[in-house]
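Q: Given only this backbone (231 positions), what sequence would you predict?
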C-alpha cells in the first residue's frame, strides 16, 4: 500500500513539474512587453573634394563635415512613425582654390556662403528590415565667381532618389554600400548599433557654347546609427 501511495505521489510531482516548466516560457513572454518607442541617434561624417576646369581657369575645393541627428520612433500598426528631435552640423571645414594665369586665390570656410544640410525623411519597413531614407543636401560650386557652376552632390542613403541633383546617386558608389538598414527583430531585443561606410565618385565632361568643361566630385562617408528601445 505504501509503495502504491509513493508511486502515485511521485507521478503527481512529476506532472506538476512538467506543467510548471511548460508554463515558464509563457510567463516570460508575457513579462516582455514590446517597447513603446525607440530613441535614434545618427552621426554622419564625410570628407571630399571637387574640381572644375574651364579653359585656363581651374577650381579645386575640399571639405569635411560631421552631422548629428537625434529623434524618436514609435510603432504604427505594421509601420513606424518618425519624430525629429535635433540636427546639428557639429563640424564644417572647406577650402577652395582658384587658379588663373598669373592669379592664385583661396577661399576658406568662412568664405563659403553655403553649408551641408541633413534630412532624415523616413524609415521604411521592407519585409524583416527597416530601411533609412536620408540625404545631405548640397549646394552649387565653385563658391567663387565662375561662368559655370555645378551641384555638389553630397551623401545620401540608397533609399533616397537624390531628385535635387537630377542624377542617380547610387550608380556612382564605388566602394562599400549606402544601403542603410536594420533587422527589425534586433531593435526589440535591446539597444542596436550599426556602422556603414562607402566611397562615391563622379566625373564628367560637359559642352557649354562650343567649349568643354570638366567637373569632378567625390567623397567618403561613414554613418553610425544607434537605436535604443524604451518601455
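A: Predicted residues:
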Amino acid at each position: 500500500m505504501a509503495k502504491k501511495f509513493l508511486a502515485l505521489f511521485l507521478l503527481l510531482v512529476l506532472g506538476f513539474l512538467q506543467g510548471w516548466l511548460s508554463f515558464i516560457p509563457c510567463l516570460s513572454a508575457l513579462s516582455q512587453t514590446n517597447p513603446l518607442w525607440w530613441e535614434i541617434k545618427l552621426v554622419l561624417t564625410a570628407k571630399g573634394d571637387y574640381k572644375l576646369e574651364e579653359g585656363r581657369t581651374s577650381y579645386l575645393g575640399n571639405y569635411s563635415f560631421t552631422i548629428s541627428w537625434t529623434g524618436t520612433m514609435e510603432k504604427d500598426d505594421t509601420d513606424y512613425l518618425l519624430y525629429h528631435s535635433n540636427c546639428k552640423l557639429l563640424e564644417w571645414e572647406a577650402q577652395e582654390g582658384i587658379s588663373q594665369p598669373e592669379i592664385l586665390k583661396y577661399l576658406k570656410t568662412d568664405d563659403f556662403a553655403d553649408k551641408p544640410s541633413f534630412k532624415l525623411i523616413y524609415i521604411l519597413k521592407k519585409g524583416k528590415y527597416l530601411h533609412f531614407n536620408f540625404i545631405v543636401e548640397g549646394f552649387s560650386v565653385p563658391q567663387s565667381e565662375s561662368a559655370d557652376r555645378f551641384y555638389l552632390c553630397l551623401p545620401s542613403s540608397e533609399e533616397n532618389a537624390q531628385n535635387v541633383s537630377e542624377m542617380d546617386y547610387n550608380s556612382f558608389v564605388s566602394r562599400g554600400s549606402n544601403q542603410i538598414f536594420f533587422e527589425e527583430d534586433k531593435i526589440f531585443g535591446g539597444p542596436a548599433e550599426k556602422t556603414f561606410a562607402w566611397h562615391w565618385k563622379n566625373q564628367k565632361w560637359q559642352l557649354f557654347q562650343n567649349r568643354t568643361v570638366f567637373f569632378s566630385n567625390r567623397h567618403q562617408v561613414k554613418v553610425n546609427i544607434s537605436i535604443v528601445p524604451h518601455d
